Amino acid sequence: MFGGLFDGVALATSSPAQLRAIDERLYAHDDLYADVAYNTGGFQWWERDAVDRLFPTSGRVFVWAAGGGREMVEFARRGFAVEGCEYNSALAAGVDVAFDHAGTRHGRMHACERDMWPPTATGPYQALVLGWSSYSLVRGRGTRVELLERAASVLDPGAPMLLSYFAATDAHRYIRSVALGGRLTARWFGVSAPERGDMLTPNFAHMFEEQGLRAEVEAAGFEIVEISTVGVARAVCRRVVMSDDRSDGCL
User: Fold this and answer.
1) What is the mean pLDDT of residues 89-114?
2) Per CATH, which fold does 14-171+220-235 belong to?
3) pLDDT for the residue numbered 2
């Protein structure tokens, strides 16, 4: 409980720049994302299962928060035209290395700012992957929904999106403690309280209840096709087909 209270205080008093710096240093010094064997090792089992069953077999696919390029390389191997972005420059530097070692066609990398959709990624794309648990690293519901809205705007109607996240399963006591510490700090110092589900791991992350995840996805123009918390929590979503999509002859 006390750890949660402390995290609530820290979240309420830390600036966005401080939290971003912690996250960027953490991943920049994680040797896993610089490991060529890892970055050319293909999909994780849960990614492979989702892509094999619910993704198209060809087309343009975008990987947001691509890390060292692992998912991008595997999509290229499968014959997709793959594009991606990675806001952590230390991780992005490994993408070209991974493609060179894999011996496959390079995917296009777009410059982007943290938590934002790259303005040069205009699609249309037939599928989207958000890098492993990267959605949970985006701070603020409004920012997350805007990110998904921008993504939806460049996806074909009905196109799938694989979104992995941190689930709140078995962490309800911690979540309550963080929320309490954040509220008390916000009242005392006149600052904004963290959202329920925010945590430090030690970098910022957000844990989702299924209902909250569904609400964000639906607000951005997606619907959830399937969801699972077995192993890695993830959802396969689909861009909702709108009436103007039909009138434009997209389907």
Assistant:
1) 94
2) Rossmann fold (3.40.50)
3) 55
